[in-house]
Amino acid sequence: MSLKAGKEALLRKRYTEAIAILSEYCHGHPDRTAKDYIQAQMWMVKAYQKSGRADKAIAICEQFEDNPDPQLQQWSKKSIVTLRSQLEAMPEDRLERNYDVASVVKSSASRYRKTNVTLAFDRKATYIFILAMFVTVLLVFGLILGAWLWGISLISLTITSGWWMVAGIGTGVMGILLFFMSPWIIEITQKQYQRTQWITLADLDLKSPEAVEIIEKFCETKNILVPRLGWIEDDSPVAFTYGILPNSARLVVSRGLFLNLDDDEIATVYAQQLAHIQNWSFSVITFASAPIQILYLIYVALSRKSYQAKRAKNVFKVLAAIASFIHACSTYLLLFITKSSTYPCDRFAAEVTGNPNALSRALTKIAGGLVQQNQLGKPPNRLLESTRALGVCDYQTTTAIGIAQEILHSGQSDQNVYRVFLWELFNPWSRWIEFHSTHPLIGRRIKVLTGYTKQLGLISEYDFPQLLKEGSKLDKGRLYRNFARDLFIQTAPYTGVTVGLIAAKLLYWWVYNNWLVLSFPAIGLGLGWMFQGSLRYPNFRRVVDTDLVSLLIDPYASSLHGLPVQVPGELIGYSSDENYIGYALKLEDQGGMMYIHYLPNFRSMFSSDKLMIQKMETLIDQSVIASGWFRRGSMPIVDLSILQPILGEQKQERNSLTSYHQFWNNILSSAIVLLGLLILISTSPLF
């Protein structure tokens, strides 16, 4: 940075930008007695004074009180008098430069009276985080070594000590190259999905002055350069950090973050991202993310090709599906480090801002913003998919909290919507969901942040202490009995295959039929699948008339065992479902919205879907009753049985939309059983 650039920013009244440029200029200056260094310091005093930070200007002036130059001494003394009078005589004006910055000093009941506090933290989490750093790096190098050994095995039948040396050296070289090239790889791949604009602290100061304060203090304390600040024009609330060294880190946010969050909440998100730089987790995550970003780029390219190609569309769709599966599997490489680094980063944000409640609010508001952006009929958001592990939270596990946030925002429910957190805190299935998530569940993170508010003597958000008391009174026996039942349901097909293999092995010595190994497991698989369907889609004799809020706040809700429900609402959209076969419908009631999974019949699925589309179009914006089976997993969903308009009986029957979950489960499971029986009969010597 040049002295001229700093002067130009000062003349243009971009005081924050001028401070950043001049600070960097002075930081690298070899001679602190030189005229240009002193001139830069004087301009910094003016910039701090104009931006309302007289205390920092005084600190600079005090350095020149004992300077041998009498003119410089006189200037510093006069400036200190002026600045102190400004600091003492106009405190309100200084603080009212921005209300949220002022609140750092003027504390509220939900925010501590000062920043840079110290919070107690479980050391076990710190040790786990350090272990995750080493394990992730070793896994990446292990995968590179495996690739080398696989390549060597193609050209040599035996891997000698010489080949092991080649593989070891190659792994080291490729690992080091990948380490230093990983930020560039992420930057190149991100350019394929969205355009990143690079902004200055002055630009950010217009949007979030408190975030600028946090960044400046952090960089000054750590003696590093200000991270390169990125801005993406996307309404999805996203923030992520990547890079290898602290002085070359990139901190990127989206427009959606500022649309959904207040200034103090934005500041905590920036602080949380700076924490990744502080503990070096951003470096390891960037290193491990680079090959995953390449896999995702391949998937996107094949997916686009499947839409653009005039021939072999299905071939590209299959290839895209394979690439998507490989990318999804590769994401597990990052889960240990991303989850273990989240809690230390949350604590750092709470310490730096003295405002753990703001981070709690930010997490729920981000979840709400993600739900708003998840529009049916639109292609998947590449920004969310490509930054899933880099971001603040995992968009795949925030749907329930996001819907609850929307309900709270609407204020149309008289129930305690905060109870939505009970499922994430106490239901055993939440551990399984979190295992597959890139970040800890929001409810668990807010629980830890609530502990910080208690340390600071603050009032916590979302009545969390009361929720924890209520959670301690839940029927733990019922929770774990339901979990055991669900595991039994989920493993029924695999149990059937295992029993079939054992039976085939035992009977082989009696009938000497090699086909038993195929027929018996097929019969076991079909029977297990049939049994799974009978419990997943029970009959409607115990159907529950309910609403969306009641389903969301039920801590006993299952991820597998369907609860027969009837939910009134308005159908507001539909689209093909990427996660399941069939269609996703969007139902909205007075409180919020819910996704419904619709599975059409044989004709609509494999032949013409014209009649089905017409029915869905007819039901759009109509008041309907959805009957089906509710499940609460990574996202709450209803497997539809029938969707009926609230009209007269004739129109109701004609325009009803019937789903075929039970039908397809029974047909496919019966077909597998019959196939196994056919193989058994056709190959058995008894027939």
UniProtKB/TrEMBL annotation:
Pfam name, any one: Peptidase_M48
Keyword vocabulary terms for this entry: Cell membrane, Hydrolase, Membrane, Metal-binding, Metalloprotease, Protease, Transmembrane, Transmembrane helix, Zinc
Listed GO biological process terms: proteolysis
Topology in membrane: Multi-pass membrane protein
Cofactors named for this entry: Zn(2+)
Ranges of residues in domain Peptidase M48: 232-451
InterPro entries: HtpX_protease (IPR050083), Peptidase_M48 (IPR001915), TPR-like_helical_dom_sf (IPR011990)
Oxidoreductase in keyword set: no
Transmembrane segments: 127-150, 162-186, 280-302, 314-337, 487-509, 515-532, 663-681
Domain of life (superkingdom): Bacteria
UniProt GO MF annotations: metal ion binding; metalloendopeptidase activity
One cellular component term from this protein's GO annotations in UniProt: plasma membrane
Location in the cell: Cell membrane
Major localization listed first in the record, in broad terms: membrane
Keyword Cell membrane: yes
PANTHER family: PROTEASE HTPX
Name assigned to this protein: Zinc metalloprotease HtpX
